[in-house]
Amino acid sequence: MSASPSTRIEHWINGRSTPGTGERRGEVYNPATGATTGHVAFAADSDVDAAIDAAAQAFPAWSATPAHVRARVMFRFRDLLEANRDRLSEIIVAEHGKVFNDAQGEVTRGMEVVEFACGISQLLKGEYS
After folding, report:
1. Where in this protein does the record put region Disordered (predicted)?
2. Are 36 and 27 in contact (CB under 8 A)?
3. Which of 20, 48, 51, 122 is deepest in the core (most CB within 10 A)?
4. Sign of CA dihedral 82, 83, 85, 88
């Protein structure tokens, strides 16, 4: 994966990318070469507050969603991880300097964690559920 120095990494708040309100930025480096590959916006207090507010607003509906429905959402997430495994691995290589095979192993481990989380709803069942 190659990124130009103009690559801007933004915040993800309430389901969308946002540049944030902070003025501070940091450079992102390719760990293998030391070259600058982009810039990341540092969050201002208002950005953090917006993220917390979005999470607080989403929580009631999500927590009221039955566990088996939440598991379906997580299985879909796992499917997306698998479908984008190579792309995610390329990002890990660029951001962390890992070799591609190690990066793929990291994505696979992430998929295993999601699969484990998907099975938790079965553990929540009682004698009569």
Report:
1. 1-27
2. yes
3. 20
4. negative
What φ, ψ does residue 42 adopt, rounded to 5°? -85, 140
**Would strands 16-18 and 36-41 be described as parallel, antiparallel, or unpaired?**
unpaired
Contact 18, 54 (CB under 8 A): no
Token couple for 49: 């507050």
Residue 104 phi/psi, 5° resolution? -65, -40
Predicted TM-score (pTM) of this structure: 0.75
Cβ-based burial of 20 (10 A; exposed 0-12, middle 13-18, buried ≥19): buried
Q: Match 């796992």 to its residue by tokens.
A: 78
- Write out the H or E segment, with its range, that includes residue 51: helix 45-64
Q: Verify that 85 and 128 share a domain, yes or no.
A: yes
Secondary structure E strands in the chain: 8-9, 11-13, 16-18, 25-29, 36-41
The residue segments making up the domain with residue 87 are: 65-129
CB count, 10 Å around CB of 101? 10
What are the tens digits of pLDDT across the range 109-123? 999 999 998 887 777
